[in-house]
C-alpha cells in the first residue's frame, strides 16, 4: 500500500465515522503554516541584521587587522542588503 492509498483509506474511514461537517471544520483549520510573505521576510531580515549589529557592538574588537577588516566588510554587506531590500518597489503600487 502506498502512502497516498493509506491516506485515502484513512480519510474515507474518518468521513464514515465522523461525517462531512467534521471534515469541513478540519479543512477550515488548514494544514501546515504558510511561507511568510515578502514583507514579513524583509522585516524579519531587517530585525536580524539590527540584532547582529547590536551584538557586534557589544563584542570586544578583534585583535588582528585582518579580523577587523572581515568584521567591517560583513557590517557593510549587511547594511547594503538592508538598503537594497528597502529600496525595491512593492508590487501593486
Overview of the structural elements:
Helices cover about 75% and strands about 0% of the residues. With about 90 residues, it is an all-alpha fold. It has a domain at about 40-85. The longest helix has 23 residues, at about 65-85. It is elongated, with a radius of gyration of 25 Å. The mean pLDDT is about 80.
Task: Offer a quick outline of the entry.
This protein has four helices and no strands. It is mostly helical.
Ordered list of secondary-structure elements with their pairings:
Blueprint lengths: L2 H16 L1 H10 L8 H21 L6 H23 L6
Helix pairs in contact: 1-2, 3-4
Strand content: under 5%
Biggest β-sheet strands, sense, barrel: none
Structural class: mainly alpha
Radius of gyration, in angstroms, nearest whole number: 25 Å
Count of alpha and pi helical runs: 4
Order of secondary-structure elements? HHHH
Q: Give the terminus-to-terminus CA distance.
A: 51 Å
Helix content: over 70%
Average pLDDT number: 80
- Which regions have little confidence, pLDDT < 50, spanning 5+ residues? none
Task: Label the overall shape.
Answer: elongated
Task: Give the number of DSSP strands.
Answer: 0
Keywords:
elongated, 4 helices, 75% helix, single chain, mainly alpha, 93 residues
Amino acid at each position: 500500500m502506498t502512502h497516498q492509498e493509506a491516506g485515502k483509506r484513512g480519510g474515507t474511514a474518518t468521513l464514515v465515522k465522523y461525517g462531512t461537517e467534521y471534515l469541513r471544520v478540519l479543512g477550515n483549520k488548514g494544514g501546515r503554516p504558510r511561507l511568510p510573505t515578502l514583507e514579513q521576510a524583509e522585516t524579519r531580515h531587517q530585525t536580524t541584521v539590527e540584532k547582529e549589529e547590536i551584538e557586534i557592538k557589544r563584542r570586544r574588537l578583534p585583535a588582528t587587522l585582518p579580523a577587523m577588516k572581515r568584521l567591517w566588510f560583513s557590517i557593510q554587506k549587511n547594511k547594503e542588503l538592508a538598503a537594497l531590500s528597502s529600496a525595491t518597489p512593492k508590487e501593486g503600487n
